[in-house]
Specification:
The complex is a heterodimer of chains A (460) and B (301). Chain A is α+β, with helices and mostly antiparallel strands and 460 residues long. Chain A has 17 helices and 18 strands. In chain A, the strands form five sheets. In chain A, strands 10, 11, 12, 14 and 16 form a five-stranded antiparallel beta sheet that branches. In chain A, helix 4 crosses helix 8. In chain A, 25% of the residues are buried. Chain B has 301 residues and is mostly helical. Chain B has three domains: 92 residues, no CATH class; 101 residues, Cytochrome c-like domain (Cytochrome Bc1 Complex, Chain D, domain 2), CATH 1.10.760; 91 residues, Cytochrome c-like domain (Cytochrome Bc1 Complex, Chain D, domain 2, Orthogonal Bundle). In chain B, a hairpin with a 3-residue loop joins strand 2 and strand 3. The longest helix of chain B has 26 residues. In chain B, 21% of the residues are buried. The chains are: A alpha+beta (460), B mainly alpha (301). At the A-B interface, strand 1, strand 2, strand 12, helix 17 and strand 16 of A face strand 1, strand 4, helix 2 and helix 5 of B. Strand 2 of chain A pairs parallel with strand 4 of chain B, so a sheet runs across the interface.
Chain lengths: 460, 301
């Protein structure tokens, strides 16, 4: 069939048929788990405030008892690297688990499709409705569907913004129509994003936008678990009234249920999100026709090609790629917890004053001046004591120390100025390494910070 | 802004390139939208790694629509903002007026805080940690450049943590100093005093704070000091805070110490200047920073 096509084409809307089976159930289980976590988390409070809150405006990330600051970027970095490596690992073992079951795009499409099917009927009726002319019934069904979609989307938008702004305040403001400016913008933005992506874009996002889908091939090998069609068993598929054919009766069920609209019998394609719905669909048919199940199944390229029985194969799982990913993942997790464990709930920086290099006071002491920024990263008011060490007879100028009451509220940080003095004439001129010690009151915690003490030429 | 360019060449070039770019995109989209290919020949004939062929799949229509939306966005943007440089844009945006707007909103926000702390009495201020923090911030931003972050000054910049004040250390005087600044002026006496007289006076002045001196020279200098210097520095050399004449009897030397140095000051005079801060700070801010400076010497008593 030869025809002229344009370089740009409107995509055909896909009407996936309802599926029943183990993977469809599994998918819904994940919908529930991910959505309960997503919608529930912002409402959890912990010690008088939201348990998980990424307060961008005040640059504080609250994760239960821990408060992260911009200086803690290393933890976030490590956490994201851990997530990325886990994704690599799961992908190498079991293919696109994320895409098929947990990705918001998949999950929301599933929810929106469910709403659509409840209102407009099954895949056949939906298609018929779309092709039909406009009448009262069609208009009312469409209005109803989009209203439910929009309601759900706005709820999603509010929940999402609730991770960044106190959700109780947010909902309160919303009830009294006080939302404005950027908060309102982001609520609407994320609502519309959900509405567009889950309602209209659907598989287009996976096919054309998602980068993860495209670098899959770098993580796949012949031992990766994928949804495959056993063509040795299925082919030649049944065509019209042919007497001799394989197990595939060419019923199209696998194509009808596919949320991305592909034919899995063509082999592995980048559009396949590995959701396993075609497995369910095919198994239902196989059962009806009295054939063995799993003509389409989760298997590996290697097993299908070499006609190896399915099931756990340790040689396949424990291949070098998996072992290396696992090793990297475990060491990163260990590193993360080590960092977290050795983290103090206060920190400070020492900056030598750039204006006054050194100074002689009236008692013939050399003075160096430092600015110290102390930050209280704990959840309560805290006092600290500063000391200096590293040179004989070095000490903090009593008079500056008198003004150096280092007391900070939770999450507060402040600059303190300290004058350090050393008797003149003891040391030759030069730069000497010293260190400060900051001790938390009523605790054994001491944090050291390096600094330099400058001794001038001692000619006068 | 167009005025930032020395000639019209660059603004016009930039405007032309921008407009040509937008139009070019539109024309390209239109032309490729007209083109048709045979559905059988979807392969582009590009082959890699022996078997990998690149196919010519049609681009989704919505992607093209996104492209058109960006073009519409750019036109709207150019209408509001001075993106073409030769036009000002209906929004009349400039870096400067955005800066002014942000400063105005910040001032509005912080003036409340300043108002609250400026209303405190000096003693309450001293014990209010947050108020001291605000004062310290202002001091570090506005005063530390000369007086040092620890406020102990350096040569020619007075130490603010001791109890020696040129113009008075009470709150009112400090506030006046910060608001209107000070101009200290010690006149040159090269013309009116002969070198011997200068030497005598220098020895006398240095003797007042127990510095090295020769007794008989200092004795000669004492009478001349009364005659010439006491007008400003007072009879007993303890200075005069009204005109900012320093106390010469303590061992605190603003510009330098030693007989040689004192002689050069008497000969050549010295001028010192504290700039007024009322151009940079609001009245409330000045009140807060005055109290902060006041507490600096208070803490050492």
């Amino acid at each position: 069939m030869e025809k002229e096509i344009h370089l740009y084409q409107s995509e055909q809307k896909i009407y996936p048929r309802d599926v029943f089976g183990i993977y469809a159930k599994f998918r819904w289980l994940f919908v529930w788990i991910t959505q309960i976590i997503f919608y529930g988390t912002p409402w959890v409070s912990w010690g008088g405030r939201q348990a998980i809150l990424f307060d961008i405006e005040h640059r504080r990330f609250y994760l239960f008892d821990i408060v992260f600051y911009p200086q803690d970027l290393i933890y976030l970095t490590l956490l994201l690297i851990i997530c990325a490596i886990s994704l690599f690992l799961f992908t190498a073992i079991a293919g696109r688990l994320w895409c098929g079951y947990a990705c918001p795009q998949t999950v929301y499409t599933e929810i929106f499709l469910w709403i659509e099917s409840k209102i407009e009927g099954n895949f056949f009726n939906r298609k018929k409705l779309d092709l039909a002319g406009w009448n009262i019934k069609k208009i009312s069904l469409k209005v109803l569907k989009h209203s439910v979609w929009l309601f759900f989307s706005i709820w999603t938008g509010i929940t999402f913004v609730g991770y960044f702004i106190d959700i109780n305040l947010l909902v309160n403001d919303l009830q009294h129509f006080l939302l404005s400016g950027w908060v309102l913008f982001w609520v609407i933005f994320y609502s519309m994003f959900t509405y567009m992506n889950a309602g209209f874009m659907r598989e287009q996002v996976c096919k054309y936008m998602c980068p993860y889908a495209r670098f899959q091939s770098a993580m796949f090998d012949q031992h990766t678990l994928i949804v495959t069609y056993d063509h040795y068993r299925g082919e030649p598929r049944k065509i019209s009234q042919s007497k001799i054919h394989g197990d595939c009766i060419n019923c199209q069920a696998c194509i009808q249920v596919c949320p991305t609209g592909i034919d899995i019998r063509d082999g592995l394609q980048y559009e396949c999100i590995g959701c396993g719905l075609c497995v369910d669909a095919c198994n239902t048919i196989m059962e009806k026709t009295g054939k063995f199940k799993n003509l389409i199944r989760y298997s590996t390229d290697y097993k299908i090609k070499n006609k190896i029985k399915d099931g756990l194969n340790y040689q396949e799982i424990l291949r070098p790629r998996i072992l290396i990913y696992t090793l990297i993942l475990l060491s990163l997790i260990a590193l993360f917890f080590y960092f977290l464990e050795s983290r103090y709930d206060y920190k400070y920086d020492v900056v030598k004053d750039r204006k006054v290099m050194y100074r002689l006071d009236e008692n013939n002491n050399i003075e160096n001046v430092y600015r110290i920024k102390v930050m209280n990263a704990s959840n309560h008011f805290q006092k600290y004591h500063l000391g200096v060490d590293g040179l004989f007879n070095i000490k903090i100028d009593e008079r500056s120390y008198g003004r150096l009451r280092i007391e900070l509220d939770p999450s507060e940080s402040d600059w303190f100025v300290v004058t350090v003095e050393l008797p003149n004439g003891v040391l030759q001129s030069g730069n000497y390494p010293i260190h400060f010690l900051l001790k938390k009151e009523n605790s054994d915690d001491i944090v050291f910070e390096k600094a330099t003490f400058l001794v001038p030429n001692n000619e006068n | 802004m167009i005025t930032d360019f020395p000639s019209l060449f660059w603004p016009i070039t930039i405007a032309l390139i921008t407009i040509a770019g937008i139009l070019g995109c539109l024309i390209l989209l239109f032309l490729t939208g007209q083109k048709k290919i045979n559905s059988k020949k979807v392969s582009t004939t590009h082959v890699w790694d022996e078997t990998l062929t690149e196919k010519n799949n049609p681009l989704p229509k919505w992607w093209v629509n996104l492209f058109i939306i960006t073009i519409i966005f750019s036109i709207v943007y150019l209408f509001f903002y001075p993106g073409l440089i030769i036009t000002q844009g209906s929004y009349k945006w400039t870096q400067n007026n955005q800066y002014d707007r942000e400063m105005a909103s910040a001032n509005e926000k912080y003036s409340e805080v300043y108002k609250k702390y400026a209303a405190l009495s000096a003693d309450d201020y001293l014990n209010n940690r947050k108020a001291v923090k605000v004062g310290k911030k202002l001091f570090l931003n506005q005063c530390a450049e000369c007086h040092g972050v620890d406020a102990k000054g350096s040569i020619s910049f007075p130490n603010l943590t001791d109890n020696d004040w040129l113009y008075g250390g009470d709150l009112k005087s400090i506030r006046e100093t910060i608001t209107n600044g000070r101009n200290g002026m010690m006149p040159a006496f090269k013309q009116s005093l002969n070198p011997n007289e200068v030497t005598y006076i220098a020895h006398y002045v240095n003797s007042l704070s127990g510095g090295e001196h020769q007794e008989h020279l200092a004795y000669l200098g004492k009478a001349m000091f009364k005659q010439t210097c006491s007008v400003c520095h007072s009879e007993n050399a303890t200075g005069n805070q009204i005109i900012g004449a320093p106390n010469l009897t303590d061992d605190i030397w603003l510009h330098g110490k030693g007989i040689e140095f004192i002689m050069s000051v008497i000969n050549n005079g010295v001028v010192n200047h504290m700039p007024p801060r009322n151009t940079r700070l609001s009245k409330n801010e000045i009140d807060i920073v005055s109290m902060y400076v006041w507490t600096l010497s208070k803490a050492n008593q």
